[in-house]
Amino acid sequence: MKRETYGVFTAITMVVGIVIGSGIYFRADDIFAFTNGNLLLSIIVMIMGSISIIFGSLSFSYLSRKTTESGGVINYFETFISHDLARGYGWFFAFIYLPSVSVVLGWAAALYTFILIGIDATLPMQIALGLFYNIFLIIINSLNRKFGSAIQNVSTLIKLIPLFAIAIYGIFYANNLGNFDNILNSFAKEFKTYTWLTALVPLAYSLDGWTITLNIAPEVKNSKKNMPIALIVGPIIILFVYIVYLIGIYSILGPEQIISLGDEAIFVAGKKILGDRLGNVLLTIVVVSVIGVLNGLSLGSIRIPQALAEKRMISDKWEISKIDEKLQISKKAVYIYIIAIIFWNFIHYLVMKYNVFNGRDISEISIVFNYLIYILLYKKTFEIVKSKSKLKIFIPIIASMGSIIILIGSLLTSFIYISTFLLISGSVVFFGYRYVPKE
Fold this sequence. Notes:
The chain has helices spanning 8-19, 22-26, 28-34, 39-64, 73-80, 83-117, 123-143, 145-174, 180-191, 200-206, 223-253, 255-261, 265-274, 279-301, 304-310, 331-353, 367-385, 394-413, 415-434. The protein is mainly α. The mean pLDDT is 81.
């Protein structure tokens, strides 16, 4: 039997910590580039993108009150739609989405680590260190759940420091927001075009991951009360942090410099605040932040094969569902996830070495598909709340609109690329849907 270990603070920090990772540091330049440097339009884009997690979380909070079984979103598909579709989604979630995202995060943490220590690392070196980070955190979260929880809480708080430092300095000290009338005139001009919708693409990839928190729901104290709190408070914190950060870095550097600096914008802004000598402090925090995101993924991901076996969505003849009484987790589920991580590390190496996806990474295969398939669950939320309140029915409606907006923005950027990956992800769901495990 599973013990309730995690408090509401850990659940909230998982939502915040998983979403606010490497993306927030390196998406400001993309957002300003797609909005042609307009601050007001950038904030509107940020709000539109955040709709997908704020109202998505609100929708899922109603579902979380009706079940505390293991499996997160997979359990929601099984409980509210069908076992077969849940099995299909479970295959996609466990063997494509989670390991591919984890592999890319591990690689990013490795890349920043080598930059921090001043080593010009080759791709194999980056891949190797990324694999080490993944396996190390998997082992830590398998052996000691409380230690993994502590890493999550601390890393989330640490990563907020530079974001708020830039926001506070930019808003209250830099005082370089420019003429608001010019911002309004530029907004009116840029809004008439449709190109700014493509700014939703980098947001789609930096806002994803919040549903992974649902995987630890059975181990959260007073889950039916605390999980909805985490799913509501977490996304609101994320939106607030994203907006004040955008305003802050805009005030410190200005849109032209942000766009020209690209991913290095946060480091230049940090040096203006802290000076050249302390410039590496921000890079250190970036490394900690990405590792914190990876830890949150590991904390939830290692439980997925176990949940699939418990629900007979994969064969359990090797007793994958058997929980170790001491560790409170299935060892064989952990082994399966490690194998998946190793496999996707190899795929990631090939993709990056041969530039298979034109500079894009393997984690983008499934993210848009995730937003799209959530609409089926939002429909169930609609059915739950429609008899309770006419006002509440707008929660799943707006959540669905958020998913569609992200899909449209993605298709505008690369129709063939996104369509191909939607087909791949959908095929995995279909095969899982049709599969009947043999005992």
